[in-house]
Amino acid sequence: MKPRPTYRLRRLAAAVAVALAVTALAAAPALAGKGGGLRIEPAWYDGEGVSFLQPTLFSANPNGGVLACFGLGPDLSGIDRPSQPLYVIFDDTATQDHCDGQPTALRHDHVLSVAPGDPAYSGAWTLVLLVEATPGSTDLAANPITSAEQIQSALVDGSLVDVTSVLAPGGPVRMVAPVIAGR
Q1: How far is it, in rounded angstroms, from Cα 108 to Cα 25?
Q2: Could you give the CA distance from residue 41 to residue 63 in angstroms, rounded to a whole number?
């Protein structure tokens, strides 16, 4: 059975989006922000806005995690600690974050899968990096994706694509960032 043309088009669009993101990620370390400080980030959880804290973003500590231009605080990749998905949707219409000093570079929104009060919540995360299958098909500023359930639906229907293995080829990025406001 031949693949449907729309499926081929989606795959091509996703490949182009991934190629652009990889190019941006390769150049992004030069855009990395100043280090040593705490950073409060906005996120969505179950339809509500929350905030989480990223400790010691860029520091002299060799255990600091970095993804492109983003300092992630302590790197948990070598530590056996339970973590939950933190979905990162890279999209030009995202409103929550971007590279410091570069408001159009790697814009993205965060969606948390758990929050304080949930049995699996620990403040430790495994990043799941996502892009639109068809660039321009979603306007996150007008219609944000605000829950893990919406993420799962978008992955199933093919409107979002998981590009974690492409953007983090060394394996999933794990980090600590406790929720400090909301929920």
Answers
A1: 13
A2: 21
Q: What is the distance between the terminal CA atoms of the chain, rounded to a whole angstrom?
A: 48
d(CA 82, CA 39) in angstroms, rounded, equals 23
Mean pLDDT over residues 134-141, rounded? 91
Tell me which residue of 99, 82, 81 sits closest to 90, measured CA to CA.
99
Nearest-5° Cα angle at 85, 58 to 42: 55
Whether the model pTM is above 0.90: no
Phi, psi of 15 (to 5 degrees): -65, -40
Give the separation between CA 100 and CA 119, rounded to whole angstroms: 34
For residues 179 and 52, is the Cβ–Cβ distance under 8 A?
Answer: yes
- Degrees to nearest 5, angle at CA 20 with 70 and 27: 45
Highest mean pLDDT among 122-126, 141-145, 179-183: 141-145
d(CA 140, CA 94): 5
For the stretch 60-91, pLDDT in tens is 556 667 777 676 767 677 777 888 999 999 99
Q: How far is CA 181 from CA 87, 94, 95, 120, in A?
A: 18, 20, 18, 18
- 21-30, 89-98, 108-117 — which one is most confidently predicted on average? 108-117
